[in-house]
Amino acid sequence: MGYQGHFRVWRGSAEGGGLEDFTVEVNEGEVVLDVIHRLQATQTPDLAVRWNCKAGKCGSCSAEINGRPRLLCMTRMSTFTETETITVTPMRTFPVIRDLVTDVSYNYLKAREIPAFQPPKGVAPGEYRMRQVDVERSQEFRKCIECFLCNDTCHVIRDHEENKEAFAGPRFLMRVAELEMHPLDEADRVREAQTSHGLGLCNITKCCTEVCPEHIKITDNALIPMKERVADRRYDPIVWLGNKLFRR
Ligand code: SF4
Ligand code: F3S
Ligand code: FES
């Protein structure tokens, strides 16, 4: 059975804006993105929203629902009561372009700062075998759909624009960890994680892990192991060198 839902949607641009109230039809089985589309179709044809797959796989429809970073296409209307007002706002950490669409180019700049995978010289494809545990670790990190909800929620940059230059954010610290823990990668990523990507600014609040729609254990499986490697090296460089030389 359909009902009339109450929505409060942020509308505006980089110059400013505010919340607008709407009453809109909601039907059984719908997600928040369906209702936003109905708003576009019936009341606000110029409402800007970014989306693509409607299946939780492209990472385009990131926004905030009742202040919580969420994918619009994966948030079921059945998680709210019929009488409550659902507030939809753009991601707060990134500059607004228009309405629910933000400029996420910060993330692509950070991605480019990470040196590429560096396999040993002279090794041809197929000459190495990886242990299953190493395969599974990479596979977990590679479930990432680059929705940037983790970066949106991380307090290091959410309320501190000034930290953006020094901090890669959980998504890309995880990428650094993925490469560092890859058995064939020869680059020294630990020092860089600390000096260039801002690992030291993360104080393991785990908010990033909580909002990840792919349920990647960003903090436990990527950030904490990287911090342990930084600490190992700082306190015992000989042990670190030994691990580096005899690890394979
Ligand atoms: Fe999104 Fe999770 Fe990837 Fe972060 S790690 S960008 S929350 S999928
Ligand atoms: Fe930020 Fe995640 Fe660390 S939310 S502080 S990167 S644990
Ligand atoms: Fe692709 Fe939501 S539209 S993740």
From TrEMBL:
Signal peptide: none annotated. Pathway: Carbohydrate metabolism; tricarboxylic acid cycle. Keywords: 2Fe-2S, 4Fe-4S, Iron, Iron-sulfur, Metal-binding, Oxidoreductase. Its cofactor is [2Fe-2S] cluster; [4Fe-4S] cluster; [3Fe-4S] cluster. PROSITE patterns: 2FE2S_FER_1 (PS00197), 2FE2S_FER_2 (PS51085). Residues 5-92 form the 2Fe-2S ferredoxin-type domain. Belongs to the succinate dehydrogenase/fumarate reductase iron-sulfur protein family. NCBIfam families: dhsB (TIGR00384), PRK12386.1 (NF009052). This is Succinate dehydrogenase/fumarate reductase iron-sulfur subunit. It comes from Saccharothrix yanglingensis.
